[in-house]
Amino acid sequence: MAKARPRSVVSALVVALPLLVVVAVVVRGALRPSDGSRAQAEAPVAGPLAGYAAPQADLPAERLHERVDGAEEYLRSQGCSRLLAWDLADPAATLEVLLFEDPEGAARVLSRDAGPSRTAGPGDEASADAQSVLFRRGKVYARLVADPDSPADPERLLAEARKVDRMILDDLGREM
Amino acid sequence: MSGAHPDRRRVLKRILAAGAVLGGAGLAAGVAVLSRGRWREPRVAALPKARGVEPDPRFPAVAVARGGPEASVRAAVAAVGGIARFVRPGETVLVKPNMGWDRTPAQGANTDPRVVAEVVRLCLEEARAARVVVADVPVHDAERSRERSGIGEAARGAGAEVLVPPGPGFVLARLGGVVLDTWEVFAPMMGADRLINVPVVKDHALTRLTCGLKNGYGLLGGTRARLHQQINQSIVDIATAFRPTLTVVDATRVMMRNGPTGGRLDDVAPVGAVAAGTDVVALDAWGATLLGADPERIPHVSLAESRGLGRIREGTAPREEIHAGP
Fold first, then answer.
1. Between chains, do B264 and A16 touch, taking CB under 8 Å as contact?
2. Which residue of A has its CA nearest to B23?
3. Same domain, B232 and B115
4. How many domains does chain A divide into?
5. Pair (B29, B99) in one structural domain
6. What residue in B sits closest to A113 (Cα-Cα)?
7. For residue range B2-11, what is the model confidence (pLDDT) as tens digits?
8. Interface pTM (ipTM) of the complex?
9. Segment B292-316, tens digit of pLDDT
10. Terminus-to-terminus CA distance in chain B, angstroms?
11. Which domain covers residue A87, as residue numbers?
């Protein structure tokens, strides 16, 4: 009997080993999040501008390609750390808010988009026309672009941009 | 104590039996999990071959027409041999526009829907194709991009099926490129007899130009941004693998700055032209000139030429443009 016990234990282990392996794989798979849930876990917190619903896109630097396919390297090189986007219904427009590491990076991207001229508008500097308002507030750069299929209302667009500027100051001030 | 041994032996035997049953079940489950493909060697499909046409010296490699979008498509395609040179009756045609962006036609980020619809009509009505599928894998939300681009409605109205992901899904395909060996390809690509590439010309932050060569990107799945590390070689790999039968370039409106996303109408110029041809390098070279860029200095265009995909000179040489009418 003194010999039988170790042999039985070894036999039991040999038989149970595959089961243990399968259990380990299943448990590991259950604990590891799927791509979708991982993306969700990495995404920054929702609702960064309290006046709007959760954005359609809220992307950290490494996922900028999901919105700006091809322009992400340029934005990252300028220090872009996060991009938020909303499709607005009234006015019908797209709003993109980009956060940078410093105001200089945000200013360079504004200059690339709008050229050197500036107009009256919200933020520290702005470039507005009938269809769009681009502006920078500190290290936050915002692009509000009206849907061309909707009736143009530059005043309404400018008013919305000023509202966005206030929300940036109130809600993203800690990041500026 | 002597009576306890048989009991212990019996208990051990039962434990062993239970272990064997559970172990067997575990093994079976393991095999089942493995066979679902998580660790199994994935099957790699081959891309369809011979979608191109033989060169014909009677026709130019590139023809440019100016006028209304529909008339320009008809005139440009007629000048390079007519749609019947490229599509046979009863065939399935995949039309690949740029439909990647949640943008309206006026913003110039996507192929003009009128151009796409006219290509569909040519295939169905003149060439008598059995089936035309318009497909793309958008960057922005797929359904919004399909509808806001206007392509969904226009192409359906012309008689095509319009597919975006998830749709029929993706197939792992062998591209056989320098940096792209295998990659996920949108399934409609695999079943088509002919591929008609219908890009829009526009600025691109990373590659300066996006036109015919880069448009193939939009048939790939997976994390395409990974390809941006070797963007020029990737573009040429894709163009080499896909080899469109015909390319019809939309330059109705050209996004001159802030591409590929754009959005501002100020960035868009009304060019009012369409080019068609079989030389995608020449067509890209022509597109580059619209942006005021030297195609020789656009790495993916010059690389494509060096890989034998076409000739820049064919796109930049002076040509007589066709006045297509409104």
1. no
2. A19
3. yes
4. 1
5. no
6. B258
7. 444 657 777 7
8. 0.72
9. 999 999 999 999 999 999 999 999 9
10. 107
11. 48-175
